[in-house]
Amino acid sequence: MKHVSILVPNGHYSLVNIEGTYQIFSWVNNFLQATNRQPLFNLHLVGASRSMTQTNGLFTINPNLLINEVSQTDLIIIPAIHGDVQHNLRMNAQLVPWIVNHYHRGAEVVSLCIGSFFLAATGLLNGRPCSTHWQFAQEFKRQFPEVILKDHKIVTEADGIYTSGGAYSFTNLLMYLIEKYGDRELAVMASKAFMIDIERSSQSPFTVFMGQKAHQDEVVLEAQEFIEQNFSDKITVEKLSQQVRVGRRTLERRFKRATSNTIAEYMQRVKMEAAKKELESGVKTVSEVMYDVGYVDVKAFRDVFKKVAGLSPVEYRNKYSSKILKMKKEKEKLAV
Predict the structure, then answer these.
(1) Which residues of 231-265 are buried (b: 16+ CB within 10 A; e: fewer)?
(2) Which regions form coiled coils (predicted)?
(3) Considering only Cβ atoms within 10 Å of each terminal Cβ, which end of the chain, N or C, has fewer?
(4) Would 335 be classed as within a structural domain?
(5) What are 229-233's contacts with CB under 8 Å, separation 24+?
(6) Which among 268, 236, 266 is positioned nearest to 254, based on CA atoms?
C-alpha cells in the first residue's frame, strides 16, 4: 500500500480537496477489498497540530498524524489554500521543509487547484510544468516565472510531481493517480462511481478571458480598452501605438510586461472571448460570428478558436448554447 499524506494546512484550506481525496481513495480501497484484493492506499490526514480550523471558522479537521510523526510517506497531497501566498507560507512554515525533505527521500507530491502556489513556493516546481486554476494563471506567472505554467492542462506530471487545474478538476488528477498506481479498469470504475469524465484533459473550454488589468500602466490600459472596443476591426500595432501616442517598440515592450501577452495575443483572446459569448447565445451561425469578430478565413478562425477554447466553434456552440440545448431536448421529446 502507498502511504498517502493528505495535508491539512493552516489558513483557508479547501475542505473539498481534502475530503474529496479521502473519500475517493477510500472508495478505491473498499472496492478492492470487496473484490478480494489488497487496498491500494494507506490514508492519513496530516497537519502541524491535532485540530485545524479554517480561518473563516466554518470547518475543523482533526488530523490523525502530525508532520513530525510521519517518518516515511509515498504521496503528499497539497490542497488549495486561499489567500496571500506569503501569508500562507508564514502560517505553514513547518510544511515547506517537510515537503521538500520527503520529496528528496522519494515521496511524490501533488498539488490541487491553487495549491500550486504553495508548491511553487517550495522551489520544487522550478523548471517543471504545472497547472493551476485558469483564473489565477496570470498571477501565478508573475509570482513564479521559473515555473513552466500549462494553465490549459487539467493534469501535469514531471519527476514525481503532479498538479491539477482549477476547482473540481482535481478529481481528474485523482483518476489519473488511481490508474497509475492501480490500473485502467480500477480508474474507470472509480470514474463511474463518482460520475467523473475520465477523459477530460483540458480546462480551456471553461476559461473566461477577463483581460489582465491588475497593473498601473495607464498607456497599456488605454491600449487594452481600445482593443476591446474595436475588436472587430483590423487593428495594427502601428495604429494602436498612434492611438495611445507611444512608439511601437515601447508599447510592445510595456504591453508584454504589464499583461504577459503580446499585443497580437491579446487581440486574439479578446476576439475569441467575444466569439464564445456569441456562440453561447446560439442566435448566429458560426460564419456570422466569425465575421463579427473580424475573421474572414474559416480555417484560421476555427484553428485559433480551438487553440483557445479547446473545442471547435461548432462543438463549443453545441455544448454551451441554451438555444441549441433546448432544441435538442425538444427533439428528444418528439422521438419518445
Answers:
(1) beeebebeebbeebebeeeebbebbeebbbbebee
(2) none
(3) C
(4) no
(5) 231/267, 231/270, 231/271, 231/274, 231/293, 231/294, 232/271, 232/274, 232/292, 232/293, 232/294, 233/294
(6) 266
- For residues 30 and 149, state if they share a domain: yes
Choose among 79, 71, 31, 24: nearest CA to 54.
Answer: 79
Cell of 138: 496570470
Residue 24 and residue 109 in one domain: yes
% of residues, the chain, pLDDT over 90:
83
pLDDT at residue 328, rounded to an integer: 65
With bands split at pLDDT 50, 70 and 90, how would you rate the model's confidence at 200? confident
Predicted pLDDT of residue 213: 86
Instruction: List residues bridging with 6 in a β-sheet.
Output: 45, 77
When pLDDT is averaged across residues 110-124 and rounded to a whole number, the result is: 97
**Has residue 89 been placed in a domain?**
yes
* SS3 (DSSP) at 58: coil
What the block records as the C-alpha cell of 275 is 466569439
CATH of the domain at 266: 1.10.10.60
In total, how many domains does the chain have?
2
Domain co-membership, 227 together with 309: yes
Q: Which domain holds residue 245?
A: 218-323
pLDDT tens-place string over residues 149-182: 998 899 999 999 999 999 999 999 999 999 999 9
- Over residues 81-101, the pLDDT tens digits come to 999 999 999 999 999 999 999
Q: What does the mean pLDDT of the chain come to? A: 93
- Domain stops at, among 154, 171, 206: 206
